[in-house]
Amino acid sequence: MSAELPAISAVIARLTDPTVNLAAYGSVVFPLAILIEAPVIMLLAASTALSKDWATYTTLRRYVRWLGASLTLVHILIAFTPVFDWIVISVISAPPEVLEPSRIGLMIMTPWTWSIAYRRFNQGVLIRFGQSKAVSLGTVVRLAADVTVLAVGYWVGSIAGIVVATCAVSAGVIFEALFVGLRVRPVLAGDLRDAPPANEAVNLRSFAAFYVPLALTSLLNLAIQPVSSAALSRMPQPLESLAVWPVVYGLFFMLRCLGHAYQEVAVALLDKPGAHVQLRRFALTQGSSTTLMLALIALTPLSRIWFVDVSGLNEELAGLAGTAIWFGLLLPALSALLNWFQGILVHARKTRGITESVFVFLVACSIGLWIGVMWGGMPGIFIGLASYSVGGLFQLSWVRWKGSGVLPKD
Predict the structure, then answer these.
(1) CB 291 within 8 A of CB 330
(2) Which of 73, 214, 267, 329 could make an S-S bridge to 42, C-beta 3.0–4.6 Å?
(3) CA-CA distance, 394 to 94, in Å (whole number)?
(4) Is the Cα dihedral 183, 108, 86, 224 positive or negative?
(5) What is the DSSP letter of 42?
(6) For 43-90, what is each residue's pLDDT tens digit?
């Protein structure tokens, strides 16, 4: 899945008016879409932890359908009404040329939240019953749909980059959801129906107590993206910083992707005797190796190869992106360790600590962005990544403190 954003950015950068369309997608459409769907992101962790028997699954399914429908209505309200103008003009303060491309892109992204809610909920069932390979295959289906739409858009050449990008993303999540729905059917009819009843029945109150902290975690965590866009729009070189942001963020996301998946791995495996030792070792190894890979890119001609030859940026934007790497060098390692400790807390059903840690991140990062806006002496892309890094250090410290009390002893 981490290849999606770099692929989209690379195609936008090779179509008409790339700077504006990159800024529209990466700094307005994508942050708003992902903020709207934030409450469903943790359905993967919740379903992995709770979908132990048929009765629990059907109860959770009702809640998921309600949540997906409600958030889709929110998406429509923002994309198709004057609320969009207020958000983009007054709140984010995006450059004027970004407004209309962003509006069109967010309209096309309407199926995004519902598809992700359905997919992540059923992916949790697949993981719970040992079918995690199907999750990977679903990602391949999603990427294949993305690449097909991107290839057609690039071949035609006359379609706006924002339209090509959002059509590709929408097609990807829809096809992945359909694939996961097909793959989960045998599990629902077999292993899940045959599973013994769980010790604790799940109702709306117990589910809310478990899930609301997780949903708030996602909401707080992803709220920083539109906040970042608003800050970058108010610092030096706003259009350039907004255009470079999705390209640099895509590179970081590729290197952080194993860390993102590690929370569910920890939830699924911590029940096994002695598993925490191996899980901790892997998190440390993965975090250090991906940070070293990022440093290698920054120190060698790989930086120019990635940003110019692969991503399609011009020399000016590529230089800005190459320098920006140094301000986020620790992010891959922080991601791996953070998700390890979050997995411990989800496994122990101590999810409040995760919400608290994300609030700590949001506050620390927002302070850094505010300082950058007040100072005004450095391009926003540098301040943004530096703020993410500082916020990540504070967040990791908090979640490590909360997780230390429930971690099994060596």
Answers:
(1) yes
(2) 214
(3) 29
(4) positive
(5) T
(6) 888 888 888 888 888 888 999 999 999 999 999 999 999 999 999 999
